[in-house]
Structure formats: structure tokens, C-alpha cells
Amino acid sequence: MARPRMLAEERYYNVTEMTERHHEILRMIVLGKENSEIAARLNITPQTVSDLRRSPIAQDYLNVLQIARDAETAEVSGIIARGQPVAAKLLERVINRKEEDAGIALIVKTAQDFLSRGGNSPIQKTQVESSHHISPDTIELIKQRRAEADIARKQSEQENVA
């Protein structure tokens, strides 16, 4: 006779010693990987990952890893923040062609990056395949409707002026 399943909150995961495999699993957890992804990569079950994740010793180690990750992130963020004014001045020099070593390709790339950061993304090439066929008669009908719409718009503009 099979024993009844315990509810998740009733389970106690007692990992008494961390192995290298445990450390590897926990590093992947800190990187944001899902249990199923970790399990597939390491050829273990998702339940094994879940059990380790809930273990008190593993949770303590996860906290240490997360604190270290957060400290590193803050340090990198500080480096970026301090470097932004210098980078902005260099971008301005390149765009204004005051940087002697900047070729036209670098100037264009820099200008595009600058515009992109300001919310003006470059136009992306899009290819659309369609299985619809438009007949020459349909094209003429579209042209005729467009011409009629232009005439109606011009008449409306003239009425608004008058």
C-alpha cells in the first residue's frame, strides 16, 4: 500500500551537506532558471530541484548568493552611472565630427544609437508573405477610391477655409 502524499507545507527538506551539484543547482536558481529548465539541463527531476530549493541550508546559501549578486549589480550600475556623462560627451564629439579617428560609419552608427536611446528607433525591415492575389481590376478600384477620397478631402478643406 502506497503511503499518502504530504502537502508541500508539511514536507521538510533536510539537506545536511551541500555538494557541488547542489551549488550548481542553486547558482542556476539565482540566475532565474525554472525548475524544469534546471532539471533538463542537469538530467534530474524538477522535484529534486524543488526539494533543494525548499531546504533550509539551501535557502541560506541562496540568500548569500542573492546578496552577492545584488552587490555586484549595484557596483556595475554605479560604474555605468559614472560613465554616462563621459560617454555622452564622446558621442557628441563623434556626432559633431570633432573626434579625428571617427570614420563616417562610426558617426552614422553613433547617431543611430543616440537617436534610438531618445526613443527614435531605426526602421526595421519587415517581409510579409501573402497568399492573396490582387487582380488588376481590384488595383484600379483601389486607385479610384483613393482619388475620390482626395477630392472629398480637398473639398472639405476648402469649406473649412471659407
Summarize the structure.
The chain is 67% helix and 0% strand. The chain is an all-alpha fold and 162 residues long.
Looking at this protein, list some descriptive labels.
162 residues; mainly alpha; 6 helices; flat
Global Rg: 31 Å
Query: Which spans have pLDDT < 50 for at least 5 consecutive residues?
Result: none
Shape assignment? flat
Number of discrete helical segments: 6
What does this structure look like?
There is one protein chain. This protein is mainly α and 162 residues long. It has a domain at 9-117. It is 67% helix and 0% strand. The protein is built from six helices and no strands. α1 (20-30) packs across α4 (56-95). The longest helix is centred in the middle third of the chain and has 40 residues, at 56-95. The radius of gyration is 31 Å and the shape is flat.
